[in-house]
Amino acid sequence: MSVKSKMGSSTPRLSEIARHVVFPKTIVTTAWPKIVHQCALMGVKFDAWQHGIGQIALGKTKDGKYAATVGGVVLSIPRQVGKTFLVGMIIIAMCVLNPGMTVLWTAHRTRTATKTFQSMQGMVRKPKIRPHLAPSRNDGIRTSNGEQEIRFRNGSVIMFGAREAGFGRGFDEVDVEVFDEAQILSEKALEDMVPATNQSRQEAGALLFFMGTPPRPTDPGEEFINRRAAALEAAAKAEASGKPADTNMVYVEFSADEDADPDDKSQWAKANPSYPLRTPLESLQRMRAGGGSIVANCGYGRGFSVLEVLEQVKAASGMDFPVRFAPRRPGDAVLIVANPSVAMQELGWKPEHDDLGFIVRTALDWEEHLGKRNQI
């Protein structure tokens, strides 16, 4: 089926704002309500357009299989929208609900894969999600020996890596694959990775997510381009015949009009469903101006005493060591606290690791990693 778009309210539904929405005519039900319920238990809610994507992305056929298990879920969405949050929370909820699930999250670049891994760490360490992680000092999060993964108490795992480093090949029994930076995805890379999902153990089948922005002329984006062309062809045939689209993929695209004025803010809303509710005007203005610089602090707006830090170090290390008190050194500040208000107002940023125990544990883990690496 295909849906034409039109502009709506400040919290629009998917069909009101997406340029293109194409999905299989075979959908009769969806697993989305289960995901929404689990996310609500974990303190997470979604906007209306995100509900729309979730409903069709997890749509099922009458035999209980994912309708997009073959063609995949293709999201052509600009930056600064929140697609990583949406797909990330879908994946986290699926891992919690389905014991033993295996997920590969790949990006083209190592930097992007690492950044996503760090973002997902912040998501799973939220108070209502953290109890689902595997019991260990690192909360089931592994970052050593070049491996980046999040393990859950029920045996599910999300593994992260870069395609440019060869990550994704050689796996089997994979249930979900996420192709981030899908605009830089060659047919050869896809051929190397997709067979891993042929042995998925999930009753509803495997799922493939393709997330990206429109490819630049220099990008090897033939796979992304081909999937878009196939989806739009199916939509055109459906419109001509008056029948639902004959397709096995879900395709969602947010984009401005082809002849749009880049400074037309109504076009910004068409391309970015999170604007202005989630993405501040200043963020888009900065991108439009070419990424001008600002000076901003990243912090929590409050500090910890030396004694508080020492207590957490003792707890994380399992060691009780003596502490010697001495007078303050000349020039030592009584209190230093970072004010993050600029980052929060201008960038829409907010801290996610406001947990001294977590900060100390990760610092200690890193020092232990360095010590082992530097052993002769």
Short account of what is shown:
With about 375 residues, the chain is α/β, with parallel strands linked by helices. It has helices spanning about 15, 30-40, 50-55, 85-95, 110-125, 185-195, 220-240, 265-270, 280-290, 305-315, 340-345, 355-375; strands spanning about 1-5, 20, 30, 60, 70-75, 100-105, 140, 150, 155-160, 175-180, 205-210, 250-255.
Characterization of the model:
Strands 1-2-12-5-11-10-6-9-8-7 form a 10-stranded mixed sheet, sandwiched between helices. With 376 residues, it is an alpha/beta fold. Helix 2 packs across helix 4 (83-97), helix 4 packs across helix 5 (110-124) and helix 10 (306-317) packs across helix 12. Strand 8 and strand 9 (157-162) form a beta hairpin. It is built from 12 helices and 12 strands. Residues 1-10 have low confidence and may be disordered.
Contiguous runs where pLDDT drops below 50 for at least 5 residues: 1-10
Task: Report the average pLDDT across residues.
Answer: 85
**Count of helix runs:** 12
Radius of gyration: 23 Å
Q: End-to-end distance, in Å?
A: 62 Å
Q: Total number of β-strand segments? A: 12
**Can you give the helix content as a percent range?**
25-40%
Report the order of strands and helices.
EHEEHHEEHEHEEEEHEHEHHHHH
Main beta-sheet annotation: 10 strands, mixed
Strand order of the largest sheet: 1-2-12-5-11-10-6-9-8-7
SS-derived structural category: alpha/beta
- Which percent band covers the strand fraction? 5-15%
Name the shape in a single word.
globular
